[in-house]
Specification:
The chain contains 18 helices and 15 strands. The chain is an alpha/beta fold. The chain has two domains: 18-254 and 446-463, Glycogen Phosphorylase B (Rossmann fold), CATH 3.40.50.2000; 262-443, Glycogen Phosphorylase B (Rossmann fold, 3-Layer(aba) Sandwich). Bound molecules: uridine-5'-diphosphate (UDP) (2 copies). One uridine-5'-diphosphate (UDP) is lined by residues 26-28, 31, 256, 278, 280-283, 307, 343-347, 363-366, 369. One of its GO terms (molecular function) is UDP-glucosyltransferase activity. Belongs to the UDP-glycosyltransferase family. It is an enzyme of class 2 (transferase).
Length: 464
């Protein structure tokens, strides 16, 4: 049966649901919320977007400001956090600390919601905030949905992890066999989870435990890429009693922040000749590794567009490219390579006809953006959930993953020779190009009104 539709604007029966969205810290969490906000608003919902200032990175501030300016129909709701002392925690990760600061302000949400008009009819809360906010939202009588910002494979790990911890026979973490899915090897488990006292571990386990209590879990993925994990989750194999896991991706990028545009340079390059290299918004690379990567790109013989990032938080990026890579290098590669530091419009790059491959850390938004444009990935996961996502990329035919390249907590440096060879392989593999293109077509079909993700979105709205 098709989902009920919201009557069109002007219809007297129309009562648009008013959905409040609560994103968490970091571009990886903010970007899918911005996209969901626009998708819901385009479908006739009234949308309030909860904002928290100051943000950890300046990219987040710019992104929120651009969203609200471009879509004035989205209502900003300014959420003032309770006082928070980060020095009380052993963690130094600014994003995990901000998760905690937001989590500890959950009791302030009812006052914020009480001031909204028309009243809010449901909330969508970021996964990293789930265990603190879900009881508060349901306590005021509202439905609470979660948005999981990474892969369905990662959601399976999140859902199963509390049971894994409860049943393990030895201390520490080993390979984790996810019921109904596959075994995540120890090496692919996010490093903080090795330590039971890590702040992220506490949050991750508490959030995993509360999933069953949500009204639904929205996820930015699609069936052609992650059928196995979505089926395992929805058939109760991973954990019994989960609410519906609704795939609605790849959520369409809506706009970018201001930033240097690589378009004029890309416009001058032949079709599918450029490899785009980026490790996302919060994964820094050591100078030694950067130099090997630079040399690897040079050896590959391919044209490249490389976004260099040397600090976790963009506000701390002070050193110039010349100092990081050397003027000689930049001079040598300038005919074939564009090296930039700072924000680029990734979406316009991945959509550009000159781009034929993507060396990516496999942050989930990057993966979904590559999928949407059918751009094959050479996966170089560096931390967190990225190896789990890289497994999805490799299994789904979207890319290749060379296991064993340097990872969080390791001193080793991937060699220029190896990198160069793999980049060339990425750009020359016709079979991979075809399978990524096929997946791109499936992604476009999925988000159409009658596609699996389009229907997922409509069914979610229909329930409100
Ligand atoms: N992004 C961008 N320009 C940049 C760096 C990142 O547009 O210079 C966007 C990217 O397109 C994605 C998001 O920021 O939408 C990063 O999220 P992802 O999950 O890929 O990785 P994270 O930054 O969370 O590690
Ligand atoms: N995540 C989770 N539970 C949490 C916090 C995060 O399952 O309590 C997931 C999140 O969706 C992502 C992964 O854990 O898949 C790593 O989170 P982080 O914020 O480090 O990643 P980012 O998206 O910023 O790259």
């Amino acid at each position: 049966m098709p989902p009920p539709e919201i009557p069109p604007s002007g219809d007297p029966r129309r009562v648009a649901p008013h959905i409040a969205l609560l994103p968490s810290a970091g571009m990886g969490h903010l970007a899918p919320f911005c996209r969901l906000a626009v998708a819901l608003s385009d479908s006739g919902c009234d949308v309030s977007f909860i904002t928290i200032q100051p943000t950890v990175s300046s990219a987040e501030s710019r992104h929120v400001a651009t969203l609200l300016a471009a879509f004035p129909r989205l209502r900003p709701l300014d959420f003032r956090l309770a006082d928070f002392d980060p020095s009380a925690f052993a963690s130094t990760d600014p994003f995990f600390l901000r998760f905690e600061a937001i989590r500890r302000s959950a009791h302030l949400l009812p006052t914020l919601l009480a001031a909204t008009s028309p009243p809010v009819s449901a909330l969508v809360v970021d996964i990293s905030l789930a265990s603190e906010f879900l009881p508060v939202v349901t306590g005021v009588g509202l439905p609470c949905y979660l948005l999981f910002t990474a892969s369905a494979a990662m959601l399976s790990l999140c859902a199963h992890f509390p049971a894994y911890i409860a049943n393990r026979t030895t201390a520490g973490v080993g390979d984790v066999d996810i019921p109904g899915l596959w075994t995540v090897p120890k090496a692919s488990i996010p490093l903080p989870l090795y330590d039971p006292n890590n702040l992220f571990t506490t949050q991750f386990v508490e959030n995993g435990r509360i999933l069953q209590k949500a009204d639904g879990i929205l996820i930015n993925t699609f069936y052609a890429l992650e059928q196995e994990a979505l089926d395992a989750l929805n058939r109760g194999k991973v954990v019994p009693g989960l609410p519906p896991v609704v795939a609605m991706g790849p959520l369409k990028p809506v706009m970018g922040c201001e930033g240097g545009s690589a378009l004029p340079w890309l416009d001058a390059q032949p079709a599918r000749s450029v490899v785009y290299v980026s490790f996302g918004s919060r994964t820094a690379m050591s100078v030694d590794q950067m130099k090997e990567l630079g040399s690897g790109l040079e050896r590959s013989g391919c044209r490249f567009l490389w976004v260099v990032k040397s600090k976790v938080v963009d506000r701390e990026e002070e050193v110039e490219l010349e100092e990081l890579l050397g003027e000689e290098y930049l001079e040598r590669v300038k005919e074939r390579g564009l090296v930039v530091k700072g924000w680029v419009e990734q979406e316009e790059i991945l959509r550009h006809r000159a781009v034929g491959g993507f060396v990516s850390h496999c942050g989930w938004n990057s993966v979904t953006e590559a999928a949407l444009h059918g751009v094959p990935i050479l996966a170089w996961p560096r931390m967190g959930d990225q190896r789990v996502n890289a497994e999805v990329v490799a299994r789904g035919g979207l890319g290749i993953w060379v296991k064993g390249w340097s990872w969080e907590g390791e001193e080793k440096v991937g060699s220029a020779e190896d990198i160069g060879e793999r980049v060339r392989e990425l750009m020359e593999d016709e079979g991979l190009r075809a399978s990524a293109a096929r997946l791109g077509m499936e992604a476009v079909k999925a988000v159409a009104v009658d596609g699996s993700s389009g229907q997922g979105l409509a069914q979610f709205i229909g329930k409100l």
